[in-house]
Amino acid sequence: MTEDHEAVTAGSGLSRRSFTTAAGTAAAATALAAAPAAATPVQAVPAAPAPTRGADFDRCLAVARALLVVDDHDRPLVPRYERVLQDGLPAQRKATPKKVLVIGAGPAGLVAALLLKRAGHHVTVLEANGNRAGGRIKTFRRGGHERAAQPFADPRQYAEAGAMRLPSSHPLVMGLIDQLDLKKRRFHYVDVDGDGRPANRTWIYVNGIRMRREDYARTPRRINRSFGVPRARWDTPASAILRSVLDPVRDEFSTVDAAGKRVDKPLPERVQGWARVIQRFGDWSMFRFLTEHAGLDERTVDLIGTLENLTSRLPLSFIHSFIGSSLISPDTAFWELEGGTAVLPDALLAKVRDTVRFDRRVTRVEYHDPDRPSSDTRHVGRKGPQVWVDTVSEGRDGPVVREQFTADAAVVTVPFSGLRHVQISPLMSYRKRRAVTELHYDCATKVLLEFSRRWWEFTEADWKRELGRIDPKLYDDYRTGRAPADGSLLGAHPSVPAGHITPGQRTHYAANRAVSRDQPEAAHVVGGGSVSDSANRFMYHPSHPVPGSSGGVVLASYSWADDALRWDSLDDEARYPHALCGLQQVYGQRVEVFYTGAGRTQSWLRDPYAYGEASVLLPGQHTELLPSIPVPEGPMHFAGDHTSLKPAWIEGALESAVRAALEVHTS
What we know:
Elements lengths: L15 H19 L22 H12 L9 H10 L11 E5 L3 H12 L3 E5 L12 E2 L18 E2 L5 E2 L3 H9 L4 E3 L16 E4 L2 E4 H6 L2 H6 L11 H13 L3 E3 L5 E3 L2 H15 L4 H8 L4 H10 L10 H10 L6 E4 L5 H10 L3 E2 L3 E7 L19 E6 L9 E6 L1 E4 L3 H4 L3 E3 L4 H9 L2 E2 L1 E8 L8 H9 L5 H6 L23 H9 L17 E4 L5 E3 L11 E9 H8 L3 H16 L7 E9 L10 E2 L5 H4 L11 E3 L11 H17 L1
Parallel strand pairs: 1-2, 1-16, 2-12, 7-20, 13-17, 16-25
Antiparallel strand pairs: 3-4, 5-11, 6-11, 7-8, 9-10, 13-14, 14-15, 18-24, 19-22, 19-23, 20-21, 21-22
Helix pairs in contact: 2-9, 3-5, 4-13, 4-22, 8-11, 10-12
């Protein structure tokens, strides 16, 4: 339904949006005609622009420039942003320090605060969370600036609830990591062999068929036929099918060199090419593109969606998924931070700690705008303050309190899904209010399980040795499907610390155990992850051991959109037996002996500070909403990854932080 939101209603000549607008206007006119005259003047509502059909090329060009981070003359902005991150904001003649409120202590808020503080401005950061900065950078760990309790049986273990991989193609993130002297190491998105080369030996388990990725790449027929794809595609891997339909679109802004590698066109051509793509497909969903433009049948779409992680994104914007697959090439190196991604906000917070007020949820904002007079802005005025903010605490460490703050300017980094619950006076522009109301946020949920041994790295000899420590016959019992399935072997290995698995857990795990009793060969992989059509969907192994620990934490389920909602309906503790069941379907029942009974889970939709995984736009929203999102409203400036074309990436947050800090500093 989303991709045809501009479809013409039969016989009416009106699109659905036009019809709603017209009907709403008529209803409002009737109500106003019947209402008594107001006793006092009320705030004028900024007029809504007339609805238009489709996006003109200038707007598509603006989106393309935002995507490529260039100015109106197609000059790259990233080198300037890198200099600002490294050297600070530029010196200003006769500059007067401003009082600045930064709302939100995620990466965008922390970096904006750091830049403004270094430039001499008086900064206060307001964070709703009572003890943690970083936003969707969150590591399950012991200690940290949030002084977290031990999350796993092994106190040395940690795992990512949020951001976990950092592309080498994100220059601001790479530069900031170096500047803060943080240690990074390779994140193996694809499993590697002993020499660090891609091995592709992780599992695909779909339609009851289990196959190594490397085997599927060579002989995909069995899995492809299980989806019912046409005979012509029996022997083509899903990734190759997808690449074949996307490459002609990529030809608009890139070419293939003599070595067969895709190379970007010169920047002005690249901007124009992206603008053409956005104009052509900006209103399309991924499903519509694959079926209507690429001509794929639904069975082939099912295959691609399942194996290439597109099922959850099919109803959403084609442009969103296409950007993700085009800006990060297959040979992009990924990195992770030693100690967890949260060491990044740790380091940033240390530099602005004196400016941060935790446990202050913003409930109301007033700002002064001479062009938008309002009777509801009695706390601000022409002579100052320009911004007034009301906050309330969560009352974690005492009574619930309110506190007000004033400033000359504000940098708002709150996700628009959360800003929806903040009263703002006077009303912001129509386009900004529409973006706050309609910007689509997706969900993502992770379920992580701790194991006392890194069994995914085992050979069969390793399995035989370790299972023999429990019972000499147990290796053969698992291989032949005769091992007990009553939960008695849960955490049975001597390496599992005692006291973490309760009788109730054993009962729940027995009730939710995998029905299939077949035992595949040892995974024998380092890093990477497997894919399944079960509720787990995607599973990832740690890329590196934690120093001093023989175990590890597996991301047993990573899901988005509707797949994530299936987990969100379960309480946290109820997710763990289901996640272990999904792992056993892929890797076999025997992994249970190393389970410590400890798990952690993160639903970003249910998170009271995030309000969703990220802004994952619907068809049409890139051109209808995005251009107005970063535009200031009087003294209010907007930052956060949702204001960029890199939602869900730290790079997008940093781009927006530098932009907003420059706006405040130079205004």
